[in-house]
Amino acid sequence: MEHPNTALLKAVADLATAPLMEIAHRLREAASPYWESTALVIFTEDCTGRPQKKSGAEAIISRVSIAELDAIRATLLADADADADAGTWRGEAAFGGGIRQILAMTSPSNALLVLSDPQSIPGSDTEPDPQWLLNYLWRLAAERIREKVADAPPSYLIESRAASAERLRVTAELVDQHSTTLETLLAALRSPALADAAARTAATDVAAKALVGLRTLSDRTTDLVEEPVASAFQRLREDLRPLMSFSGIDVQFIEPPVNGRALPGEVAHAARAIVRGLVLAMVDQEGVRRVRTQWDCDGVNLLINVRDDGPGELSASAPAMARLVQRVEALNGSMGVDVMPGWGADVAVTLPLDPPARPFAEVADWNLGEREVEVLQLLAAGQRNRGIAAKLHISENTVKFHLRNLYRKIGASSRTEAMALAHSNGLR
To answer: pLDDT tens across 291-314, in order?
Structure first.
């Protein structure tokens, strides 16, 4: 006859040996005889590549955002009744795109557990208290995550950092784009050349365009791996056109060669952000009437030149300029600032189009078949499914089959993450 606690002991054993990607599912299963919930999410900053572990209703877990989890954590930590070792909070919060009843718990490792629509299941007098049991299982899961990350092989760390870099790139693009929008709004509202009604109309138009751009940015960054240099430069002109209209500054553009090499997505994004930052820093000087920006491509590097006709007071050590230097150096590029008192400033930026070569050793650990390696190489080169199918003389359905196997073997959850992992291992 099976002991009544046998099932619980088996669940604890499964949880204690769970792989990272299954730990949320194992935790939910272990707690299911004692707690009902529509979804369970673990949020831990130890796993930089995949900070969320999820189980439950797809309609909820697919919409959970880091902003929601950060807000829940802040509420939990601010709760005066939270336990000092493992805080617990219950209430309504934004979660999975809607307002839901949630139960949130922290751990000594600062991981966060969130259950949506939680309901404890009454048991017999001899069974553990559901709240105590959930706390025990959660501490076990949190410690398992900490141990797995501490013992992670180099391949996991490389994948994790690659995924983090991709998220950072998208976030940086958002920050840069909307910083420019705010600068443009301020320029419109402060412009002495516009009446109040005209300024409001102009500001409304700028804000509406920015909202549309925000909604489409996710799709664009997912699909866009490489960008033709001419279209990348055209997007820069569109970004700066409102500023030109409201500030009265003449921004001149020297077009790059139309047949220049396509830019990797991260280089195109960074180049636009760097030029926008330089232009904003230059027009902040008194007496600047004209700024000229030029792009060129030598096949190996993107060459950027931005010059103003101001008093030559642009400081290379100013905080705004120091941030731009950091961004350039993050891409292994270089930036030189030549200041000519009374004549203006001339800034030259060089951005390599290819990252430093990385070893291929980790790729072998993925145990990919010959055809899967070919698909991954074409994916990393920016080919869509149709292009991969044409080059390998296979059907698009076969390409999708190989991609599903690829994602599973390399631990990627999306096309973008698979490309990031491939790039991090030298595949281009």
So the answer is: 999 999 888 889 999 999 888 888
pLDDT given at position 240: 84
Q: Residue 361: what pLDDT?
A: 43
Q: Identify the CA nearest to 260 among candidates 224, 308, 222, 294.
A: 294
CA dist 173 to 107, 127, 266, 296, 334, Å?
33, 53, 9, 22, 20
Residue whose entry in the numeric block shows the structure tokens 């959930």: 134
The residue type at 55 = S
Any residues with CB less than 8 A from the CB of 315 and at least 6 apart, and which? 321, 339
Local structure of residue 64 (DSSP, 8 states): -
In the chain, what are the domains?
A: 6-152 (3.30.450), 157-352 (3.30.565.10), 361-424 (1.10.10.10)
Residue-wise pLDDT for 180-220, tens only, equals 777 777 777 777 777 888 877 877 777 777 766 665 554 44
* Tokens standing for residue 252: 């001149």
With CA atoms as reference, report the closest residue to 236 among 281, 283, 275: 275
Q: What is the mean pLDDT of the chain?
A: 78
Cβ atoms < 10 Å from Cβ of 203: 19
Residues 6+ apart with CB under 8 A from 391: 378, 383
> Can you tell me the distance from the alpha carbon of 54 to that of 69, in angstroms, rounded to the nearest whole number?
12
- Burial classification of residue 390, based on how many CB atoms lie within 10 Å of its CB (0-12 exposed, 13-18 middle, 19 or more buried): middle
